[in-house]
Structures are given as structure tokens and as C-alpha cells.
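Chapter review: from sequence to fold.
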Amino acid sequence: MCNLYRLTKAADAVAALFRARTSAAPNFAAEIYPGYPGLVVAEGEVRAMNWGFPLVLKSKKTGAPLKPKPVNNTREDKLHTGFWIDSFRHRRCLIPVTAWAEAEGAKGSMTRTWYSLPDDDLFAVAGIWRPTAEWGNAYSMVMVDGCDQMADVHDRMPTILSRDDWDRWTTGTPDEALALCRVYSEPLIVDRTDEPWFKRSSSAASATLL
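The C-alpha cell string follows.
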């Protein structure tokens, strides 16, 4: 499950690589956390959206709605279920990524291990998006089984799309898109760091996967 990733390229560089339109200079941070803005390529345009679909729960004591939680990841085997199905069928997007991180180590002292591609400093991860009343447009990252290089850290990873598959993910049929949700078979760069996983109270601790 991915709860933190980097995008170190500016919006115009993203637009050039993905041959997409950009009408403004969207605001986003280089490190992107659930519940905060990131860039996506949707409907041929680079857009800033909130990372995570809002999940509104109710208080067990009062029954009142609680603050929404960002559901920032979805499993590929859940794409045809009720929470995701409309977005998967009608609103698939590309998420530009430089690297993503996983937490590694003992609880309470976990550090950040970063994963990236050897020959691409910017690549695309499969995503879906939808309008929301709570946060405006929001997106979620599609996850598949982790590859062998990730086996000692996590059993899930983002769905990495080759350039030849970008159009098929966004404009193909749902069956064609689902066929692209497969384990990544190419080598990864693995960067184990001493960075503490929890650097801010509002980051990965609030992430949710359905």
C-alpha cells in the first residue's frame, strides 16, 4: 500500500511528457500524502486533485458524521465493487510519480524505503478519480501484488503502466484496463534511508485502503 510518493517535476514537464494540456500552475508538494493535493493526468489535462476518496464514517456514540478519511489506495480486485466501480468504468487517470515509499522496520522506529524505476525519473501509475462534495475532485491509486523486490517490505505496490499502455488505461474498455493491473516484472531501484516514516501527524497515519 502506498501512503507517500514523490513528484519532483513541475506541471509543465508533466504536461510535456504526457502530451497533456495544462491551463494553470497547480499547487502541490514534492512529497504527497493522503488527503493532500497531487497531480493527475485526466481527460488529457494535467490537474491538481486531492489524494484519496472521502470515506465518511459515523460516530458510534452519537451517530453524527465524522471527519472524512482519505481512501487513497484501491486493490485491483475491488475495482468492480460499489465504492469504486463508477470511477473505474468512467474516470480513469494517470498519476505521475518519481518514486514511492513504504515503511520498513519495527513499529515505532520505521523508516522510509523508496522505490523508483532505473531508466525513468517520471513514470505513470494507474489511478481513478471522481468529483466529491467534501474535497472537490479526488483520486485514488490502484494497487496490485508486490513484486519480488518488495517482498520483504510490503505485499502490495502501485500499478506501474508502461508508456505503450497509457492510452489503453485511460480510454480502453474496463476489461482492457483491468488486464493492465499486473505485477511489475522489471527491476526497481530500492533506496533504504534513515528518514523516519512519521514526520508529520497528518501523513500516512490517516491513510485508508479498501
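Two observations follow directly from the output. The chain has four helices and 15 strands. The first strand starts at residue 5 and ends at 6.
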